[in-house]
Amino acid sequence: MTLSPRLQEGDLARIARDVNTHLATYKAMLMVCTGTACVSARGFTIRDSLKRKIEERGLASDYLVVGTGCNGFCAVGPIVVVQPEGVFYQKVAEPDLDEIIDAHLLGGQPVERLLHTDLSSGRVTTRMDEMGFFSKQVLIALRNKGLIDPENIDHYIARGGYQALAKILGGNDPESVIREVLDSGIRGRGGGGFPTGVKWRSCREAALARGEIPFVVCNADEGDPGAYMDRSIIETDPHSVIEGMAIGAFAIGARQGYVYIRKEYPLAMDRLRVAIGQARDKGLLGEGILGTGFSFDVTIHRGAGAFVCGESTALMASMSGRVGEPRAKYVHNVEYGFRDRPTVLNNVETWATVPVIIEKGAPWFASIGTGDVKGNPWGGSTGTKAFSLVGNIANTGLVEVPMGITLREIIFDIGGGIPSGRTFKAVQTGGPSGGCIPASKLDLTIDFDSLKDAGSMMGSGGLIVMDDRTCMVDVARYFIDFLVDESCGKCTPCREGLFALSRVLRRICDGKGMEGDIEFLEEICRTVQATSLCQLGATAPNPVMSTLRYFREEYEEHIREHRCRAGVCKALIEYSVVKENCTGCLACIKPCPSGAISGKKKKVHVIDQDKCIRCGICMEVCTYDAIVVG
Amino acid sequence: MANKIQITVNGKAIEVVPDTFLLAAIREAGFDVPTLCHHKDLSPDGNCRLCISEITERGRTKLVTSCNFPVRGPMEVKTDTPEIHKHRKLLAEMYLGRWPAVPLVQHLAKQCGVTSSRFESELTDENPKACVLCGHCTRACDEFMMERVLEFAGRGIKRHLTMPFGEVDHHCVSCTSCAYVCPTGAIQAEDDANRPLDSRKIREWGMKVNAEMARLDKKQNRMREVGTENLLEIMDAYDLLPVHNYRFGTHPRAKELYSALFKRDHWTQDIADSCWHGCSMACSKGVDGFELRTGPYRGQRVVVDGPEYETAAGAANMGCFDREFTVEFNFYCDTYGIDTISAMTGIAFVMEAYEAKVITEQDTGGLALPFGATDAALTLLHQMADGKGFGVDVGQGVRWLRKKWAAEGKDEKYLADIGMEAKGLEFSEYVTKESLAQQGGYGFACKGPQHDEAWLIFMDMVNNQIPTFEDKAEALYYFPLFRTWFGLMGLCKIVWNDVVPADNFKEKEAHKIPGHVRGYWNFFEGVTGIPLDEEKMLEQSARVYNLQRVLCHLLGFGTREHDRIPYRAMGPVTREEYESRAERYDNQLAKIMGVDPAGKSTQDKMKLLREHREKQYDLLADAVYKRRGWTQDGVPRIERLEELGIALPRIVEIVKDAQ
Fold first, then answer.
1. What is the pTM of this model?
2. How confident is the model at residue A4 (pLDDT cuts 50, 70, 90)?
3. In terms of Cα–Cα distance, which of B11, B9, B137 is closest to B21?
4. Partner-chain contact B94 A497, CB within 8 Å
């Protein structure tokens, strides 16, 4: 077997043509989602069985089975999409596969019972483009999701991949690449929202001024609970990140790039490793890329999973073999970053977006989104943003939407609203250091600045939806506890202040809150926010501050009335039996872990409050609404 | 010097150098902010956040920590707004809640007007010597000693000080820097293993050295980064680097031996390296995995120490501007046990004799030996070690070779002028033509022309600190005694002058680096309990030094004739040398000797210059002998020996006929 030849510039179009011609010979392609969520629901088995069955039945020349990266609609996996029609099958199990082959592929009739039913409308949909979850999305970073095999570079090239790199190498004008990125108005997708073009320009200037060769770094240390945009992008389309980094490297004059990825992302790491290997084989990484004088390579650096290592200076400290702790950023990474050389660090989503900006041009990108970035790179939020939609929401999954869309559109139109008949209470954006935004702000447009004004932030794009059974004090406590664990402990306000916040919040949740606690919380928050060393600390008070801003009365109820309206804080609630509803079915007695429920068949049951540990299992198992919490 | 920046601190205008840390600027303006994690000798860390100030720069106002914020443009600074006060107070309250019994914290609380704390918790530590996580120790370990034996472990509120894996780390050299900088006493040094009289005095001096190495070395000589090799580019720039057997002091190709290239291509590990574990200067360097091209170990990959300045300069002296060659030559000298300086200076002499056709391939056993003949130079080295061929002759040294060739009827006078040895020892690698002080430093040295008895070239030629004849003569009294004292004490002399205190320029006798000399005295006193001053120190070493000179006399090397140096060390021997620096020499003829060089032949001018320079050297010898209490023939006077209390009968016996 010979190694694949190193590509020259014109070869890309030929490969694209060849692959597309080949794919067109199939009657259909079966795209089996093998993102992490679907893999955990046996996605690999589905892919392999389907492949085997197709082969066994001699259909391999007509039907191609492709394992793709994350489809996005994680709530309903494992997912199989039949392309090019776009028929979407959900929750597919192995026994369903024969039916798909017989009824759909051979019989021409979609298998109705595997189709998706829209929760809000009750309508059964056949094709992806009919589904609310997909129809409002605009895909840039996730342009290839569900459409390619992430472990096959030819698929990426067939979808126009590496053409943007070829274009800029042909133009050989790094300044114009930076100008294009600057004019596009793209701001860092990692959360800070710093204009990418400004960062690149400063880095290039610093590198030229000092005669140093700069570095590019991809921040794939996604650590927010409930956020998985970056993981999915790498799992779905690793070459888009590599191509973006190569473009950035060319623009600033770098020859080496690093991807800092947490080791909790084994699938993403594997796919990235495969992609880097393929790109090297094809001469798209390494010396003399595409036959030009440009050389660039990418190395993977595994992070051990500390949340703070997503902070750029801590990330670089970790990459240097030091303790992953931030340093003051008065001197920026673009001047003195990794190994004290000028360094551009961008997040996965930003890198994945770059090739599209180069391909379609800055004006096209800037036309999507809000605000005006002409003249002021901070003037608006252009392009799209990927969000992971989790929590109390019907359509859990990964979405990409244009900047400027409202929270309501995302949560209700795309997300399908709140399940189980509950009502929307708040959405936490921006990860643990983000804030909780209440129902009154559902029509808030999503962009970097409006979220900040609302007391939250864009963050990396996690959206955690909460229904009315969520206690906002408890939510604040949860996130602060997360941050107490993840604070590096270097600076005093973050280390001592967050611990104090946690103690006070716990006290309030335990019903031991005192007058003055709210003011004390606010006092700590202000100092932690103003004096912390890094952005982890500076934004850490957000969960407390935003819940105090929008849900202050819940804090007051906890402290003054010893009441948790959501029925979450154990010290403040009691489970009791509604006599009128209880049928005496005995169903709640056995599951009760503390033996707190007594009662005879067909007699009203009784909960012993001294024994009850307030776990809520009784309420879950009761089918007669006979147990209430309050 | 970059333009200064105008800033105002609490309304008061001051000027600062760009990149001054804000804290220094605030203090310069006469204000102060509380600090806890700041330490004057350590890099700022900004972890306590107490030193926050409000700055307004280009219309934007923000809070920054003063200790690590570099001032880079005009700004307004406020150090005590109500907002700052509020934050500072709460931070102090946090400290007080966690460590209420630590005096430093109590002082801080008082300073910020905090009397009680709402931050008391189950983690409150009543120990008055608790660690307050300031990080002085971890930074001292890293910056003073380049170790990271101490580090913080545990995230967030679990942060605590530890050694790797919670075990005593064998990399710890017990330097006690961490205990020295600890502000609470959480780290205590248990030392005194050698039972010095006053360990505090010793430690204070040691820590001062550590701090200077950490803060000043990177701005001064970069000993940690490139070691003594940093001198190569300085010597090249000042026309003092020996090239082609000391004919010239610079060469276009000398750049190939600069430290930056050794650093880029050869030195491995990219760390400061020390010849003994625990030195905070750590100027050693090394090349790992070097593949040898020649000799018995050809093809093997080896570890090579250095090269030091002298070795790289020796390569230039042979015209071999080749780093690979230098490293290989260095390796074989180390392996054979041959001194690099003697070997290189010796080969340079042979090369010049070969180029001048004083010797031919008949003399060299068929080896072609022009300057730059790297392979031939290595062959000679291998022959020396093997006891074969021409290498055997070269291995006898310059003096032996010179005499042998003279006996064979070769140009004796020329060979005497260019044979760079005195008292039978080859010169080390500095061009001394323009430095009368270093000529004396080489010529009058008891052991021969080796630089560590009186390394005056830098203070004479680079820093211009001993401009007059009297200064030079006095330096030749003081420095050989001072440097002999180091040897007696077994102390490293590199620490004395390669990095100097930031305020050394303010000293009256800056070239002596008095701050460091006082440090050595403190060290001596700390060990022995005997206080020292310059007089006592010089007396200690003068006894030994004069005894050495007496022994030189006994061995037949102790009189004025043996203190002579070849003329190549004083001035241009060849036309080519003179003409390459004609402007300089012509100027000197006119200005110093009052001779109009116009119309004179080079030969005539060389003769005049030689007469002048040889006379200067003789005058210097007169003055130095007198100052040292020696006869005009360079023999210690019996009175001087009596004064020093070493006029023992057997010693007097040696010198009495030479009085």
1. 0.88
2. low
3. B9
4. yes
